[in-house]
Write a structure and sequence with these properties.
It catalyses: [(1->4)-beta-D-glucosyl](n) + UDP-alpha-D-glucose = [(1->4)-beta-D-glucosyl](n+1) + UDP + H(+). By secondary structure, the protein is an alpha+beta fold. The chain is built from 26 helices and 20 strands. The chain is 52% helix and 13% strand. The strands form four sheets. It has a seven-stranded mixed β-sheet with strand order 3-2-1-4-8-6-9, with helices on both faces. A six-stranded antiparallel β-barrel has the order 14-15-16-19-18-17. Strands 5-10-7 form a three-stranded mixed β-sheet. Strand 18 and strand 19 form a beta hairpin.
């Protein structure tokens, strides 16, 4: 199924068949439909000729004017293709982007590294290596995402008696029971034969209250005597005590929908070699970026690119990764590799790699069938990413996907790029400081004129920007990737490099969920690297202003301006990173989900008032009440929620009322009522589908504007709290509630 990147202009063009864009689209479609493309020899010859032409285009030397004409023509073609819907246009844009970037890299390697002193060479080769890393990631990224498989559910056989048995594992260590409850309630109510559905809480915290909770509900409870190998060891211990044909694994804060098994299991019935099927990690609470920058449900979060595009692209190459939760694994292949991998701290991806080496298939279904809690604070988020980065570096070191048996070329590239991605720490820091080498020390990192640098570098950057915007625009906005990397670069660089040197240095750390942030504050300990980078870049910018006043000629003047523009962009990124470090108050331990569901209020005098939900959580519900009376706070009521022909009623207390809205807090729900609440709210698949990939498509200039605004906010927060920051204290901000 092709991805149709349509805009308002596309619709207008289709309505006006005489427009230039409509005629262009007709020509493209006519070319694609030519019967000669079905002849194998023609396709082979076309590929060979195209490769030769590409090599010529990349390597042919051009004068400054010739390069400018080439750049302008190719970018105009890319802009035209970007207004043409269809996957063929996307592939053509990728080819143009690769051409522009390859020309730039070829020119960089052949024409710009004739360094005459050690200072130029040190900074120049450092920047070149960072650019080569970024170029490699760009190329493999295009390979991964050019053609997402877009797998769809396969129905289960009609004969229910043939459906296999499934164990549901909910591993937990230090999370509170209130967080785990919802996952267990929803897992119990999956639409699957009851005699073939077994739910187990795997308690590595060995807590009696968890044991008692499971006993009262009638679900399995497993604990072990130690915590060896952390989550992987916990799951492996449970595998030794259970025997169902399949295992579905959910982190204890990931609440599955009732439809999870019926939506996912059909692929196992169709493909005997399928060992694992992964679904997206969707979050109903904001992560630190979304919370601190107030972008929740406004723009995609940091992880959506992976689950929205990358995993779907991996699936085409039979290289979908196991991500530790929201997935189903066939027991036999899992036991064949010795259970969940324990050699690294990213046991999930390593497990999938091992199964792929044995020739088993993996799959990805891009339909949210569970939702969980995001990390509450930036420090916890950074810690989680450090673990992921360290684990991926460990896999690269001890079980490199480029080497060893069992993998096809596409699988090797997909796994390799997943690991290569986490090495961005050092290159990102190089990009954030590279122009300072010239502004402070006069080092020439490019042995070329400023005009030639602009003529080659600008097309490379512009093509990559609009092409990635087209591919990723539903799940990642332009320029935000640089913000995410800038926030994490300093922290992941050291553990990644150490893990490459000594993979045994890895340590598993559990990411806490379900906490609160009682007071807004500026996290100085996390923000220190960004503040230092901001100050150094700001100083470099002011040095640039001084050097402009004493520039001896136009060539030097242009070089200074280019480095100052680059430095200004780095200032924006560093200041946006500072804004993320301003932790926003979060007083709810049970986040609310904004969704409209049918509901009814029932009062003690027998009156019934029809209404709908505004949001819900484990502990309460917000209602929109049209024309209803204001109810005093503290009034006991019953609220009924509906799903198709199902209904359940819950006792509650009014917490506020007025302006057509009402807030209720549930009052003393029994375990049965809590399970009913989960079935009618969190276990509904339609709740999560509403938010998945439905934002407005990315517009690069608008995204750049949003990053600049966030950066200005970050600078304002630092300036306003400078006296306290100098003293290294957490800075209490205003009462800004999430």
């Amino acid at each position: 199924m092709a991805t149709d990147h349509r805009t308002f202009a596309d619709t207008v063009a289709d309505r006006n068949p005489q427009s230039f864009e409509a005629k262009w689209r007709a020509q493209v479609r006519r070319l694609v439909d030519l019967p000669l493309w079905g002849v194998p020899v023609v396709r082979v010859v076309a590929v060979i000729i195209s490769a030769l032409l590409l090599a010529v285009v990349i390597s042919v030397p051009l004068s400054l004017s010739g390069q400018l004409v080439f750049a302008a023509g190719s970018f105009a073609g890319a802009l035209l293709l970007n207004r043409t819907p269809g996957r063929l246009s996307t592939l053509a844009m990728i080819v143009l982007s690769i051409t522009a970037s390859s020309r730039y890299i070829y020119w960089r390697v052949t024409d710009t590294i004739g360094f005459t002193n050690w200072l130029d060479g040190f900074f120049g080769f450092g920047l070149l290596l960072a650019e080569l890393y970024a170029f490699l990631v760009l190329l493999i990224g295009y390979f991964q995402t050019a053609w997402p498989l877009q797998r769809r559910p396969v129905p289960m056989p009609e004969d229910v008696a043939t459906w296999p048995s499934v164990d549901i594992f909910v591993p937990t260590y230090n999370e509170p029971l209130e967080v785990v409850k919802q996952t267990v309630f929803s897992a119990m109510q999956m639409d699957w034969p009851a005699d073939r559905l077994n739910v187990y809480v795997l308690d590595d915290g060995r807590r009696d209250e968890f044991r008692d909770f499971c006993a009262e509900l009638g679900v399995g409870y497993l604990r072990r005597g130690d915590n060896s190998h952390a989550k992987a060891g916990n799951i492996n211990a449970a595998l030794a005590q259970t025997d169902s044909e399949y295992v579905a694994i959910f982190d204890c804060d990931h609440i599955p929908t009732r439809s999870f098994l019926q939506v996912c299991m059909g692929w196992f019935a169709r493909d005997d070699k399928l060992a694992m099927l992964q679904t997206p990690h969707h979050f109903f609470s904001p992560d630190p970026f979304e919370k601190n920058l107030d972008t929740f449900h406004v723009m995609p979060n940091e992880g959506e690119l992976f689950y929205g595009i990358v995993q779907d692209g991996n699936d085409l190459w039979n290289a979908a990764f196991f991500c530790g939760s929201c997935a189903i694994i066939k027991r036999a292949p899992l036991m064949e590799i010795g259970g969940v991998a324990v050699e690294t701290v990213t046991e999930d991806a390593h497990t999938a790699l091992k199964m792929s080496r044995l020739g088993y298939n993996t799959a990805y279904l891009e339909l949210p069938q569970a939702a969980g809690l995001a990390t509450e604070s930036l420090s916890a988020h950074v810690g989680q990413r450090i673990r992921w980065a360290r684990g991926m570096a460990q896999i690269m070191r001890i079980d490199n996907p480029l080497l060893g048996p069992g993998l096809k070329f596409g699988q090797r590239l997909c796994y390799f790029n997943a690991m290569l991605h986490f090495f961005y720490g050092l290159p990102r820091l190089v990009f954030l400081t590279a122009p300072l080498a010239y502004l402070f020390l006069g080092a020439h990192v490019f042995q070329a004129t400023a005009a030639m640098i602009t003529a080659y570098a600008l097309p490379h950057l512009a093509h990559a920007s609009i092409t990635n915007s087209r591919i990723q625009g539903r799940f990642r906005y332009s320029f935000w990737n640089e913000v995410y990397e800038s926030v994490l670069a300093w922290y992941i660089m050291r553990p990644v490099l150490l893990a490459v040197i000594n993979p045994k240095l890895g340590k598993f750390n559990v990411t806490a969920k379900g906490g609160v942030v009682e007071q807004s504050y500026f996290d100085w300990s996390i923000a220190r690297p960004y503040l230092i980078l901001l100050l150094v870049n700001a100083l470099g910018f002011f040095v640039g202003i001084w050097r402009l006043s004493v520039a001896p000629d136009t060539v030097v003047l242009t070089t200074i301006i280019i480095n100052m523009v680059w430095t200004a962009y780095n200032i924006i990124l560093c200041s946006a990173s500072l804004a993320v470090a301003s932790e926003t108050r979060q007083v709810r331990s049970t986040p609310r989900v904004s969704v409209a569901l049918p509901a009814a209020l029932r009062f003690a005098d027998g009156r019934t008032l029809m209404c709908e939900t505004d949001d819900f959580s484990q502990s309460g519900v917000g209602l929109r009440v049209q024309g209803g009376p204001d109810i005093p706070a503290g009034t006991p009521v019953e609220v009924a929620l509906f799903r198709s022909d199902e209904e359940a009623t819950f006792p509650a207390i009014v917490t506020f009322s007025g302006g057509g809205r009402m807030g209720l807090q549930f009052d003393g729900l029994s375990l049965r009522q809590q399970a009913d609440l989960s079935r009618l709210t969190f276990a509904r698949a339609d709740v999560w589908l509403e938010f998945w990939g439905n934002r407005q498509h990315d517009r690069p200039l608008r995204s750049l504007k949003s990053v600049i605004i966030i950066g200005m906010r970050g600078i304002g927060q630092v300036v306003g709290n400078l006296p306290n920051i100098v003293r290294g204290r957490r800075v209490a901000l205003g009462e800004r509630s999430s």
